[in-house]
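Our collaborator T.R. sent over the components below with a one-line note: 'Predict the complex.' Nothing else. No constraints on interfaces, no templates requested, no preferences about which chain binds where. So this is a plain run: every listed entity goes in together, and whatever single assembly comes back becomes the starting point for the next discussion.
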Amino acid sequence: MTTNNGAFAFELRDMNVYYSDKLAVDKVNLSIQTRKITAFIGPSGCGKSTVLRSLNRMNDLIPAAKVTGSVIFQGRDLYAPNVDPVEVRRRIGMVFQKPNPFPKSIYDNIAYGPRLLGVKAKETLDDIVEKALRGSFLWDEVKGDLKKSGFALSGGQQQRMCIARTIAIEPEVILMDEPCSALDPIATQAIEELMRDLVKKYTIVIVTHNMQQAQRVSDFTAFYSIRKATETEGKEKRWGVLVEYAPTTQIFSRPESEETERYIRGEFG
Amino acid sequence: MSAEVQPTPSTVNPALPTEVEFKGLLRRRQARGKLWARFFSLSTIVAILALIALLANIINDSFGYVVIEYAVDPTTLAPDGDFEALTPEQLTQILVDDNKNLGVTIRDTLSVVPTDQFSTTPMRLVAPNAVLPEGTADKTLRELTPEEVFAITVTNVPQAALIARIEAEVTRSTVREAYALFESLTRRAEIEQEYLDDYGGATNTATDFYFRSWLNIDYILSGQSSNPTTTGIRTAIIGTLWIMVITVVFSFTVGVGAAIYLEEYSTGNTWFERLVETNIRNLSGVPSIIYGLLGLAIFVRLLEAITQGRTIISAALTMGLLVLPVIIINAQEALRSVPSSMREASFGLGATRWQTIWRTVLPAALPGILTGTILAMSRAIGETAPLIVIGAATTIFVDPNGPISKFTALPIQVYQWTARPQPGFRQAAAAGIIALLILLLTLNAAAIILRQRVRKGLES
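Returned assembly:
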């Protein structure tokens, strides 16, 4: 029974994430819109990155992590037994907190994904590389030095190269895990402009610590927070919950939850 | 405002030292640091001195004056003892006059058939490239007359081979005295006086006195002999190279493979995996002679059908096992130091585990893996005990020509020479050590150049 009518890229139903039997995120229900930017905000430890990483099964890389409930993507549960995580990640790309270029040339960085898929012809790769770099507004800056190491670029350029690397295999969704937290304001601005452009073609989900950034770039915002409970021996248990999810303008002007309002006002976090 | 000096924050808390106490303590803290720094620099100096002493000792033995005595005075056989001025007939005649069997020379220089068939095979098959006098082609060596053997020797055996046999078996030089480099330089006059007193000096043509470099081209290019002045390390170098090549190929493949499994596939959580990890670390500390016993039991005895016993392949596989832990541990370390962000980037683009390993993790870890391989090679090239246990031949006259052949190796050769009491062998052993060090440095340099290339490839 799929309810996907094309407007939603993801539908999360009662999704729980556990790290070695310890609950990390409790019952997330969320529908993420196609070709919109959805921002995840919340205090440290609220599980927003964990939810993000569950969307392309990056959590599989941590042996102790376990996801229950369902994450429906294009009418299919990503955690169904017959789903190959490799295929999931090919359709749902990811950009990480710190720019992580491969120790290879700019060209080889961008061509990495297509090559994984078996593209070998040089002309095809040349085209893909150029298109991806144009798509991430990097082409004019690097077109003469494609043979140079990816490390030779500035931090902001590296992050845009990582975005180019992701869009080179034309995924349907781009997940971004605090993509600007290691960058200066000017580089951040460039990435934000790029995101507004990319959203014409891609669904984007971004985790951010920066509320102004969420306000500036996102269409929808999901606010996560922490719940605590004291166990029998005085040990404290903490897990994350989704508190509120609404259009960004609404979250920042008239949030329904008092907790959201306090977070937005900067009273905790 | 009071005139009193305001107490600094540190003196407010009585648990912390006062300003005066702090100054005194600081001096002591600095002094203690300086003492340690001096100790560390002293340790470095001790290490360097030890290395210099080692090298000086080897070099001291490898060069110096020698006194050689001939059993037969060369000047009685050739003018001025210069055999190269003689014709092949004259040289062959010297051998015949000394009752030497010319068949042996023909066998060693011309024969292409196995030794046991040599004397029963017609000469045209024994020496297909030789110019044979009329009527001799179909005869076996046994059927030839002495004149015919003489003629075949004169026309076909190279002059150098004849001279070598005369020097080895007729004039028969013996090293009487071998001086070290240091005394050769400092006590030259006394040494010359000793030569004059004990051997009659330059007028005694049955002796020779000269400054000898024990490490020379002939030494490197000749095979073994029982005479320290003509012996060489060619056979041993070839043996060592064969062993090293097979050892590296075997231990690199198996070692890196195991490291990849342990780091990238195994979770390290089961008791079995933890047992394996611990044991690999322990294995690297097992004495090498134990590996020799293992190699003897498995490769020499159990797998004799494949390895043919005490052959290069047995030695190389034993060495391979010996250095395997070194390679595994270093490769694991190198794989572990590849940042996980690199793996995430690859997985995030839809790479399979193997694609991530092959395209990202291994290239990034390769410099570290090669460092481990260099360490392993350095260990393997000098190992002697396992080779002795599995039974490397100490005396061998035929060059090894493949993995399944008898062999000797440089450290074995050096070990065997050091055990011989005659003057000259200690010097030959010292020269062998220098050769071993040069070989080791060459192999390591090659690996380091390879590593630099890989690094450059990663950065450019």
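Summary for T.R.: Residues 234-459 of chain B form a domain with the MetI-like fold fold (CATH 1.10.3720.10).
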